[in-house]
Amino acid sequence: MPLVTPLDPDHDTETQFLAEFFNETLGFCPNSVLTMQRRPAISKAFINLNKAVMANEGKVTSALKRMIAWVSSNATGCRYCQAHAIRAAERYGAEQEQLDNIWEYRTHPSFSEAERAALDFSLAASQVPNAVDEEIKERLYKHWDEGEIVEMLGVISLFGYLNRWNDSMGTSIEEGAVESGEQYLGKHGWEKGKHQ
To answer: Domain named Carboxymuconolactone decarboxylase-like: which ranges (predicted)?
Structure first.
């Protein structure tokens, strides 16, 4: 049972309008946003930040951003966000081999060195204490420019917020996210956990 019950999607009309963004990314409005709308300024600010972070202005693709989100969520243990991130990666055209082998991104041939650098950055930046170091920086600069690095860290930071929000709230997970979690992550032990 969640810490705070989500409100109906039509509770706040401005949030409802902004939340249409999630129909593209996930196919539904997440319960996390429906809970945030108890304070509409939070839900609206969050959606606008999400849209800004996920906008593509360089070579970081929408699919890679969602895989960065998955690595970050996996590092922090948020099962809700793991399922959402892998679902969004699928919806944004991540290669089937990458979806099936996300756990092995460091060694699987479907991942490029540029993608590995980005995903290792996500892992290092999501750890406590933070593990971003000179080696990570050097690897990033071989493949990405500073604007693209900012985009990546925007995703990592956004999911840092979401990981804390959803694990603390015990946000109820939506059926579509459960399907994606079971399909791509279940073989490695993913389950809903507290997100009933």
So the answer is: 40-120
Reply yes or no on whether the pLDDT at 22 is more than 90: yes
- In DSSP notation, 104-160 reads GTTT-TTS-HHHHHHHHHHHHHHSSS----HHHHHHHHHH--HHHHHHHHHHHHHHH
Segment 26-51 shows an average pLDDT of 96
Q: What is the largest CA-CA distance in the chain?
A: 48
CA angle 141, 74, 45 (to 5 degrees): 80
The pLDDT assigned to 1 comes to 84
pTM for this predicted structure: 0.96
Q: E strands, 14-102, where?
A: none
